[in-house]
Amino acid sequence: MHPPAETDDLSADLRRAAQALCRADRVAVLTGASVSAESGVPTFRGADGLWEGYSIEEVATPTAFRRDPELVWRFYNLRRANVRKVQPNAGHRALVALEDRWGERFTLVTQNVDGLHRKAGSRHVLELHGNLGRVRCTRCHVITDRAGEDLPDLPNCEACGHLLRPDIVWFHEMLPAGVWEEAASETARCQCFLVVGTSAVVYPAAGLIDLARASGAAVIEVNLETTDACAVGAIPLLGPSGVVLPRLVKQLEMTESNS
Predict the structure, then answer these.
(1) Rounded to an integer, what distance in angstroms lies between the CA atom of residue 140 and that of residue 123?
(2) CA angle, corner 16, sides to 11 and 22, nearest 5?
(3) Which CATH class is domain 42-85+130-168?
(4) Catalytic residue among 2, 92, 124, 129
(5) Which of 3, 168, 169, 245 could bridge across to 94 with cysteines, CB 3.0–4.6 Å?
């Protein structure tokens, strides 16, 4: 991570970013934990290396679930309850405004599992790491949305009676193939790629930045500080996404009205 460069104002970079967006027929976005943190969702990975007080080996791997499914479910039920208390922020809503501008030619790829993008009104959302509201049967693999429910510590499938698990991609698991393939395809097709609120160190998601750049897309980074993945050639919009993205939408409207 690199500290923000000294600058008087975001205005010049916002103009450059808006011009890049105006030239784009298709737009794709990759979002990460910092977007949701502005709504009060705790970031999963803490500075101490723990995940909300637990090590990944205890709560976020297939081995952990086989060893102690009740502990894992207590952890995820707590996360589910916390997410139900929070609301989308101005950054989420600004991304909805961008989708309204491009329609089906806009794709939002997220590493977040809290469902806040959909709650804000985003429609074409690809959830690379799953969703806290959904559950998946360990036997019949049926996926259901149970977002508004309080689940027991060992919930069972209503279809076959076997143990459910969170529909989350844990460490050491593959991303869902169809979702990943669509994310890569839409990234390769876009002319402008926004990286919002992610450290860009978790692969394969971070590889989308390289794919966008290799495909000739302009890369715009909205972060508190620049990342190594975006340091070269990206347009840096440094600051909280809830502040910067609404300003970008406004600048885009001004640029379009003057063109």
Answers:
(1) 28
(2) 120
(3) alpha beta
(4) 129
(5) 245
